[in-house]
Design brief:
Layout: E1 3-7, H1 12-23, E2 27-34, H2 42-55, E3 58-63, H3 65-81, H4 88-107, E4 112-114, E5 120-122, E6 129-131, H5 148-152, E7 154-155, H6 163-172, H7 194-200, E8 209-213, E9 218-222, E10 243-249, E11 254-259, E12 264-275, E13 283-289, E14 297-305, E15 308-318, E16 325-330, E17 333-343
Parallel strand pairs: 1-2, 1-4, 2-3, 4-7, 8-11
Antiparallel strand pairs: 5-6, 6-17, 8-9, 10-11, 12-15, 12-17, 13-14, 13-16, 14-15, 16-17
Helix pairs in contact: 1-2, 1-6, 3-4
């Protein structure tokens, strides 16, 4: 019997995923990761333990607070201070859930780890392909930086199901989290207050600085670069017309603003390329998602080195944001991903 360690967050998706694994005959072990500082995860751990008892599987708690701080929380803060906008979920999946938790599972007799992600795997043809889920909640974007090794040891039990069906199963099985609300925003940021969190971790930016328009004119003052992200419109102040953040220049402590339309870009550079499929090499035409909720858009990728490439969209896309990740698709297959390193904008500063 194959042994599967299922990451149980205490939410309904991973709870139903665990129940489905048990129903399908796997030797299922529930694991809840303690990631938040102090006792911040206690409520979720208790929920996961109650679910494990209800479905009759073993449950363990794996304390990864140190790893999570070093690889996710500190990364998050450092990216903001260098003018980038991080994606901690992508990094957490690569380093923590499919990194440290997979290592733990394999060291404890596991064959696979499973999560409650909405994504699909195709194991035909001698390798494991990462595919979009047919569910409306497809989350394959968040998995674009996983390695082939990680994917071949992964399982996504709720693949292809819709949220309504997940809750119906939870209700049918009388799971104690059947009506629990979905988590929102970044899990480790209290009240979604990024700047207070970053300061609480001992990080500081350079404080107030200039808002500069794309002609190079100083048009106002900002509150510190970690309060802004490319594409932002709200919270900038009054300029007599809508303005958008188009670029952040940490070495000048400057935030560049442009009028509507200036937030679009057609070309950008990527680094840290993760190749899942051999289709991602040299020169390739594919679909590219530049953030989770962005539509996949037609683009051409030209490699400059094994680790860097330039991406050119067929049509300009809104708010291509350094620090975020680009996921590359051919059809429904995720062929790889990379970090957005820089965007082609006007040569200001």
């Amino acid at each position: 019997m194959e042994r599967v360690f299922i990451g149980m967050s205490g939410g309904v998706d991973s709870s139903v995923a665990a129940a489905l694994l048990k129903e399908r005959g796997y030797d299922t072990v529930g694991v809840t990761l303690r990631l938040k500082p102090g006792d911040g995860a206690d409520g979720d751990i208790e929920d996961a333990q109650r679910v494990a008892r209800a479905i009759g599987i073993e449950h363990r708690v794996l304390d990864l607070r140190a790893e999570f701080k070093n690889k996710v929380m500190d990364y998050f803060s450092a990216e903001y201070l260098r003018g980038a906008t991080p994606n901690p979920c992508v990094v957490c999946n690569r380093e923590i859930k499919f990194g440290a938790m997979l290592d733990y599972a394999l060291a404890n007799g596991g064959d696979y780890i499973a999560t409650g992600h909405y994504a699909s795997l195709d194991r035909s043809g001698g390798r494991t392909k990462l595919m979009r889920s047919q569910s409306a909640k497809d989350q394959s974007y968040f998995l674009c930086m996983l390695s082939g090794f990680q994917l071949c040891h992964a399982m996504f039990p709720i693949d292809g199901m819709e949220k309504s069906a997940i809750r119906d199963i939870a209700q049918r099985l009388s799971l104690p989290v059947a009506q629990k609300k979905d988590s929102q925003e970044v899990c480790f940021i209290p009240d979604n207050d990024y700047s207070s969190f970053i300061r609480s971790r001992g990080f500081e930016d350079m404080g107030e600085g200039d808002f500069i328009d794309i002609q190079g004119n100083v048009i106002g003052r900002h509150r510190g670069i970690m309060n802004y992200t490319v594409g932002q419109r709200k919270g900038l102040g009054a300029f007599g017309r809508p303005m958008f953040v188009t670029r952040i220049v940490p070495e000048k402590n400057a935030v560049i603003l442009g009028e509507d339309g200036a937030q679009y870009a057609k070309e950008f550079a990527v680094d840290g390329i993760n190749v899942i499929s051999e289709k991602l090499s040299g020169s390739v035409d594919c679909l590219v998602k530049i953030r989770f909720r962005a539509p996949a858009a037609q683009a051409h990728i030209e490699f400059e080195s094994p680790n860097t490439a330039r991406v050119t969209f067929s049509e300009p896309q809104r708010s291509v944001t350094p620090g975020q990740f680009a996921a590359f698709y051919i059809g429904d297959e995720v062929i790889g991903g990379a970090r957005i390193a820089g965007v082609e904008t006007q040569g200001l500063l």
